[in-house]
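Exercise 7. Given the encoded structure of a 226-residue chain, write a plausible sequence.
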């Protein structure tokens, strides 16, 4: 079945931190009505689930007017075209694809630091720096949004609840094209996740798109890989 509670969370970020585990996330604390909320963003590749990402500056959201009209807080979305739902394969902006696989950068898996001196250690240090690229970018964007008194983050993904009360959103990434034996049950169309960041002081929008190398960008009407 597709992801549950496809939604967009609009709010003011207040802080962020890395949360380690089976899949390392960067957790953004957000203030909004009925909050506070948390946003969990995948920032690190793990074996068999390499992260692809794109940071698109000077971005124009597919439906800017409707997005700006959203109330602060969590809004449930219909997974269908013609609304605010995002789809990496199908969404367009001014007749062009919202995002393409060619725009995505592979985030290498973070490896342990070498115990020997020389070129091997230098190579692993470079790989570690590259592996933290998405984390560093998210932190920079977070700080810029906090600094802008009217800055807002719009987080698209799956709302989750704690003791029956929605308190956050995750699956902030592509949610289609998964192999049947690897998150295939999450596949669906018009339910992809992303971060859209509005900085009114600068008059800019920035988008953060995340996918996995295992996900196909050729999908059928149910979001399954073709």
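Solution.
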């Amino acid at each position: 079945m597709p992801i549950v509670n496809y939604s967009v969370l609009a709010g003011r970020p207040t802080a962020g931190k890395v949360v380690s585990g089976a899949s390392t996330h960067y957790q953004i604390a957000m203030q909004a009505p009925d909050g506070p909320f948390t946003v969990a963003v995948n920032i690190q590749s793990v074996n068999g689930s390499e992260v692809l990402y794109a940071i698109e500056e000077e971005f124009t959201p597919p439906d800017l007017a409707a997005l700006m009209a959203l109330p602060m807080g969590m809004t449930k979305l219909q997974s269908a075209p013609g609304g605010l739902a995002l789809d990496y394969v199908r969404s367009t902006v001014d007749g062009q694809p919202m995002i393409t696989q060619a725009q995505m950068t592979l985030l290498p898996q973070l490896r342990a630091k070498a115990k020997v001196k020389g070129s091997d250690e230098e190579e692993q240090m470079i790989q570690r720096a590259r592996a933290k690229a998405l984390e560093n970018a998210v932190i920079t964007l977070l700080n810029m949004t906090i600094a802008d008194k009217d800055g807002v983050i719009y987080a698209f993904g799956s709302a989750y609840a704690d003791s029956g009360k929605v308190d956050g959103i995750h699956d902030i990434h592509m949610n289609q094209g998964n192999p049947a034996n690897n998150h295939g049950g999450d596949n669906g169309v018009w339910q992809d996740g992303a971060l859209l960041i509005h900085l009114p002081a600068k008059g800019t929008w920035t988008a953060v798109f995340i996918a996995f190398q295992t996900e196909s960008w050729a999908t059928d009407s149910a979001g399954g890989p073709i």
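Remark. The chain has a mean pLDDT of 90. Students should compare their own answers with the one above.
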